[in-house]
Amino acid sequence: MTPEQEMPSEQQVRESYMMLESAKAQLEGLAKQQELIQLAVEEHVRAARISDNKDAIVGVGSGVSIRRSPEEAEKIMDTKIDDLSRAFKSITDKAAQTEAMIQELSEKVQAQYDLLQSGGKA
To answer: Is the pLDDT of residue 121 over 70?
Structure first.
């Protein structure tokens, strides 16, 4: 048995497994955030299609809306869409990192489990 294949304790395997499950839950949460951001982007895109009205009412956050010209409203909506797109990219990057961590943890847990089951005989 090599030093890196030191016999894991059941506690170590449990801890590794809990880390794996935590990472999977984090990934699920990130996926839900992606869905919500995507829905928000779609809503803002629909709202950005401003008609030829004189004024548009634009939500600026915290339940506050303001009256703006269609051009100003479109700029505000474009800024919000850009912000949401950056947030979506950030979540996507974090999800990719989490998926890589899940793969590593899965391999680690499996190796620990196999070593524990074999009684340390590699």
So the answer is: no
